Amino acid sequence: GKKGRFGLLMGDSEADQAERKAARSSKKATRRRQKKQKLADEKLISRLKPGLGLNNPYEKRKLREELQVARATGKVIDGTTIPESGDGNDIKTSAKF
Fold first, then answer.
1. Rounded to whole angstroms, how far apart are CA atoms 48 and 67?
2. Tally of CA atoms within 13 A in the half-sphere of 34 that contains its CB
3. Residue 4: left if φ>0, alpha if ψ -120 to 50, beta else—which one?
4. Measured in Å, how far apart are the chain's first and last C-alpha atoms?
5. Which of 20, 31, 65, 87 has its CA 20 to 30 A from that of 96?
6. Are 67 and 45 a contacting pair, CB within 8 Å?
7. pLDDT in tens, 27-77
8. Angle at the Cα of 34 from the Cα atoms of 6 and 29, rounded to 5 degrees
9. Are 68 and 41 spatial neighbours (Cβ–Cβ below 8 Å)?
10. Which residues, 6+ apart, have CB-to-CB distance to 90 below 8 Å?
């Protein structure tokens, strides 16, 4: 049997049409997922720092990378819900990450 989605590596000549189609759609799904995540991150950043706008793409990219690192380490669970804190730090991005 196959392990995971494709099992052992096989060349293009060995794969039949259905396997090639499955591999292609898997790659497309991964690309769509990454693109969707990037757009969601950009929306979140624009809500966190509305003054950033389109003026500074470098700062926006830096914030997006920080968000990805924070999500990977488990510090950010859901971008839509922000934990309530009464100390006034919920405006600062550094307080969230």
1. 12
2. 6
3. left
4. 44
5. 31
6. yes
7. 999 999 999 998 988 888 888 877 766 677 888 888 888 888 888 887 765
8. 40
9. yes
10. 82, 84, 96
